[in-house]
């Protein structure tokens, strides 16, 4: 393909095809993650808590500490403790 309107059509097509392949891989991985959560749930684990733990483990230690501190502060302000 040649340039069309100043756009390198071959290069654009390659990018689009790469994105499509990655989107397919992402969907497959999402399905795999769902299966793992379903398996954990079938074995008695609370998947909501597991998702929170996964989220916390992704966070930087300082950010996690700050979030936990603010959560405790808000809970005390709302007399939840």
UniProtKB/TrEMBL annotation:
InterPro entries: GapR-like, GapR-like_DNA-bd. Residues 8-79 form the GapR-like DNA-binding domain. Residues 5-39 form a coiled coil. GO terms for molecular function: DNA binding. The keyword Coiled coil applies. Keywords: Coiled coil. It comes from the Bacteria. Belongs to the UPF0335 family. This is UPF0335 protein DRB17_04450. The lineage of its organism: Bacteria, Pseudomonadati, Pseudomonadota, Alphaproteobacteria, Rhodospirillales.
């Amino acid at each position: 393909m040649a340039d069309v309107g100043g756009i390198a059509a071959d290069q654009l097509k390659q990018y689009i095809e790469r994105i499509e392949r990655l989107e397919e891989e992402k969907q497959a991985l999402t399905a795999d993650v769902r299966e793992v959560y379903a398996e954990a749930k079938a074995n008695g684990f609370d998947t909501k808590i597991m998702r929170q733990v996964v989220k916390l483990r992704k966070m930087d230690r300082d950010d996690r500490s700050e979030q936990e501190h603010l959560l405790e502060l808000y809970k005390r302000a709302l007399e939840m403790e």
